[in-house]
Amino acid sequence: MIQLDHVTYTYPQAKHPALSDISLEITESSLVAIVGPSGAGKSSLCALLAGFIPHHFHGILQGRALVHGQDIANTPLAELVTHVGYVFQNPFTQLSGAKLTTREEIAFGLENLGVPRLEMAERVDRVIELFSLRDIANRSPYEISGGEMQRVALASIFVMKPRVLVLDEPTAQLDPLGARQVFEAIRTLTNTQSVTVIIVEDKTEWIATFADRVITLHEGRVVLDGSPDAVLTSPLLAEIGIRVSHYTQAARAASRHRLWPSELALPTTLDKAIDGFKRARKKYENLG
Amino acid sequence: MKISVNDLHFAYPNGVEVLRELSFEISSGERVAIIGQNGAGKSTLVKHFNGLLKPSRGFVTIGDWDTQSHTVAQMAQRVGFLFQNPDEQIFKRRVFDEVAFGPSNLGLSPEEIERHVSAALSRVGLSDMREMHPYDLLPARRKLVALASVLAMETPILVLDEPTIGQDGRGLARLGALIDDLTQQGKTIITISHDMDFCAEHFERIMVMKQGRMLIDGATHDVFARFELLAEAFLEPPQMTRLGRALGLPETVTTVNEFLGAYAKTREPRH
To answer: Which residue, of A279, B39, B148, B216, is most buried by count of CB atoms within 10 Å of its CB?
Structure first.
């Protein structure tokens, strides 16, 4: 689905590359989280996948980047956007500002493409169901909550039927419930609609719950790539300045005092933390 | 310097009431985190602390100043304000000028301005970036420039609206240390945050808002112990509080260290 082959990219006038020798493959229907300290190249990677690099930001792009079999550098942006949808951090940025209801907002892109009315109505209704937006379909996109607004932004992109969705910190400004709604909507897309999602996110508890794979960037390079459990509990994370969840921190400290079962991986979620600490307690009681 | 909020109501001109019946005090040196859903009224409330918004009913006083009878410029001497989005407050072309803007409006001498700016930049770790253009910096760093410009005012009260957004592990640690350090100096720190773990680590009092009203206002441990009430505001307690509860720890814990202490205690050898 996505194939990067020794990709290096340097912004115009920059001294160092933002992306350095990145090679990776991302398969269809997967939900891949990108983590990294600030300045690691997360947003640049998103901009490349969406084609903003090299079509909008020029600079020097080396290596080969394919999305859905097409070379990003040689495919016009107008065609790339039919394969790859990009959702901004702030849903305000995404909304057209020209529509009175969320239903019309979601239809805006299709209208511009001249999609026949009947087909448009069907497609819009379908994403409204998919993202649980029926209750707010007739309300103004500016009079709904942040979580709802971000789901409307997501729906307005998804209705265009992209095969790949790129989301750069879509939940940063949302409250916990709004963030959960967005993650659940994204998971539904990958599970039922064969969509591939690349998401930049720093909330490790959410990544551990929802993502299939985590790629860690540091100074433009991929330094870790694997399952959420393996990547999010790596000691490298704290070293390079990535947030580590309190579950992982507590278990790591506990394991130093033999208060965590040595055979168990460090936890990334509440359930795994409960399980490990319960086991540690049982083991101790058996010894006593 | 005390903040007093008395029967505060606020409605926008279209009549929509955003804040209702808020009354509380924040004493000098307190660390208060305001939590709640998007749209609960958190930002609207804190904009009353520096007079950006004026009450529709009731009043807000900062020390002996009623916000109703003081300008935003006057209030800026008492309340520093970090916006959620740094790009809403950054407007100069050099980091130094951005941070010096506030102090120079206080009528300080060039030497004093230099002292304020240097101290503020060193606190946020940007001392070597004073000659840079703020927009040549990464967004996370731009937020620190905005924070430095607030610190440089050396106000007794600081309001930080979502300071952790966009900060990585290192930025978060620096921010936490800075808040602890400012508290040592007796500053009052008020934050709005969706990051419960961050609130638990650095704030002693939590206010939970829902639909413009105060749902709970109390000590961090007491507030985070109330799972049902938090759920009513669509919030979850910090990770360690949930873990401690699930493991049946006798006390409410909110931070990693508290959890480890309480967990180790339950495992002390029985005699």
So the answer is: B148
